[in-house]
TrEMBL record:
Domain PAS, first and last residues per copy: 271-347
Keyword entries, A-Z: ATP-binding, Cell membrane, Kinase, Membrane, Nucleotide-binding, Phosphoprotein, Transferase, Transmembrane, Transmembrane helix, Two-component regulatory system
GO biological process terms, semicolon-separated: phosphorelay signal transduction system; regulation of DNA-templated transcription
Protein's cellular compartments: Cell membrane
Topological relation to the membrane, as annotated: Multi-pass membrane protein
A Pfam family assignment: PAS
Position of the signal peptide: none
Name by which UniProt lists this protein: Diguanylate cyclase
Main location as per UniProt: membrane
Amino acid sequence: MEKQKARMRFYDLKSIRWRITLLFLVIIFVQVMHMFWITKQAHVNANLAALEKVKGDLRLGEALLDALYPGPWAIINGKLYKGRQIMNNNFAIVDMVGKLTGNTCTIFQGDTRVATNVIRNGSRAVGTKVSKEVGQVVLEQGREFYGEAEVVGIKYQTAYKPIKDQAGRNIGIWYVGANNQYVDNIFRNSVKNLWSTLIINFFLTAVIFWLLTKSLVRPVRELVNYANLLAQGELDTAITVKTQDEIGYLARAFERMRIERKKAEEELRAKHQQLLDIIEFLPDATFVINQDKRVIAWNRAMEEITGVRKEDIIGKENYASVLPFYLNQQQPLLVDLIFLNHANQANGLVKITEKTLSKEVFLPPNGEGEGTYLLITAGPLYNNEGQLVGAVKSLRDITDRKLVEKQLRYLATHDSLTGLPNRLFLEEKIKQAVAQAKQGKGSALLLIDLDNFKLVNDTLGHDAGDKLLLTIAELLSSNLRSQDTLARLGGDEFVVLLDGAAAADALAVAEKIRSLLDENELCLVLYKHCFNISLSIGITMIDGAIPPHRLLALADTALYRAKETGRNRIVFLSCTEDEANSLSEANRIITLIKAALKENRFVLHYQPVVAINSRDIIHYEVLLRMQDDKGELIYPGKFIPVAERFGLMPRIDRWVVKSALEVLAARPDLSLFINLSGASLGDEKLLAYIEQTVHTNHIEPWRLGFEITETVAVKDLGRAGNWIKRLKNIGCRFSLDDFGIGFSSFSYLKILPVDYVKIDGSFIRNLHRDDTHYALVQAMQTVAHTLGKKTVAEFVENDQDLAKLKELNIDCAQGYLIGKPGPVPNGTDLATK
């Protein structure tokens, strides 16, 4: 026995001990690999920490320079000046920054060091040059440079910033850097702590391994032995594992199970005997068979009827040959067949064919209640010769099932919030109304949408919005007839089917509903708020010539027209009127859009955005045009609304993005901003395509930007914010278009991580003659600058407005005064910033 245990302990790879050992080895391996990864990451973090330090030290040095030597930078007589102070060989400021920060500090005139605390070969490295790589970025491109660079032969984590004169020319460089000794100190300290942690973890893991194997394996093996005894039916051996942990709890549970099972078997034997005693004295002929089809009970009545004694048939299977004999003799026989597991244990004695009949019957309630549903089944009873000897009949209470089916039908056809019929229910009703219309009974269809419902969700949350929807549903229901149907399609959209109504009746009901909400406030007592909610309503008439799905589309078109023309109004649309031409025009434009996508008939135009003070072109906005089959240009105002309404914008956006990225790849001198629709903002596939294309074609991400409208961005702030963040992380830029037309623009501006705020053109036109617009633009500029964002004024069309924008310190301008949209700009008119 001991040898067997030893073999199981040391060689049985399925044992718990070996599993724990394997887990221990895996943990150690993972910890070691993790420490190697953390060590590598620590080096990266040390470099990042040094880089962040020099960035801050660069700003500190700038503040000291401005405090000590106020005034602009300039080159005078070949020397570099800050205000009135010559900076050539002026070591005071660089030494001061070095003492405060512990870093190297240098002032360059052009690419040459003229003041530095960098010491090489016992003297200051005055006269040495900045590296070619840094000079290209800082002096030629005018951008800041952060990262590792070589300074007089030694690697540093560096921060370089261009020094500009008053004309904006790059005349020098301001530099702060931390050498690699600083990085190495951080790295060594991190590695020391990490490997100390690894050693401690290794020791603790070993201790845990030892404790687990000691306290777990032996009790589990004992418990397994007891479990095997239980499985074999041994109920007299008590389980004596006495640990106080979960294994002990399990052992005690097994012991309770052993005791209960022993008690249950004793009770079962007693009840079995009691059942046999009862069967023995039943007046009816009765016998019992077990799962093995063997007779276990044969009462006195069976002995009298069949002449077969109990002793001759108990435990045998020949009862089937006994019973048919007496049935064939047509002698009366009453037998209760008690089958423990199977319904037909009599080897073909009786059978119920596919001729079985069934019917559901409803019994009305006696007094209160919902009544009872019964499933009645009846089937013929044959003997082995196929003779009909009787019937088998059963009744089953299926009330619960019928109630569930009724509830499921209700849930499938009704809105879960309001309890109103849903689209599925409504479509069936419309089909019925169309059938009635063919017989001469017309009806009307009203599509209702709340105009400013989003205000409630944005200010009080969706619970309040749900309460308001319930209130409106009750209000609409109370103003309709019993034969009318009110349904909710989802969101804040409702439909009314006016049964048997003429056009005048439909208009009257619609106006009653519209004015009821327009002239009264809806108050949510729990939230202590009242709202002025208005409705837009589209109406169409139901006649037998228009299919049901077309009717909803007509009502939707009417509703869309009501929204377009100012909201809080009613639009009646009939296919027999000129409105049909509008639908035909939409279909024509859809056809043109699909052809343009297929045949590459879209065209990109480019309009410049310039810095107001310098008149430098910052970037170009990409504008879309579409060619018809004759080559004529169609402007976006005509085809974009149709594309948005019929779900074609994602394909158009992808075409624009793809084409613009191809231009950026071919023209490294351009910077472009692309307009995105709401359907594409948040599209993960489009986002992955942009990231991959930028990387594959080596496009500098700062040259790529996107314009999103305020109304699109706020529909899903979370999704828009995450989508923007992903592209900003690789260096792309964003502009918030149409800013100022939303009622809560400023609060959204704080949330959205955009770089530019494009002030809506309605505030810019005739700015020089409108004091109100002047004040609003000033407020937008102040808020945008406070939040670290630049401003762009669009629709700049005259010099007077441009002068006002410059007076307001607006950063950039766009409009026909600046430049009209056109083909790809030539090499003399470039966006480089």
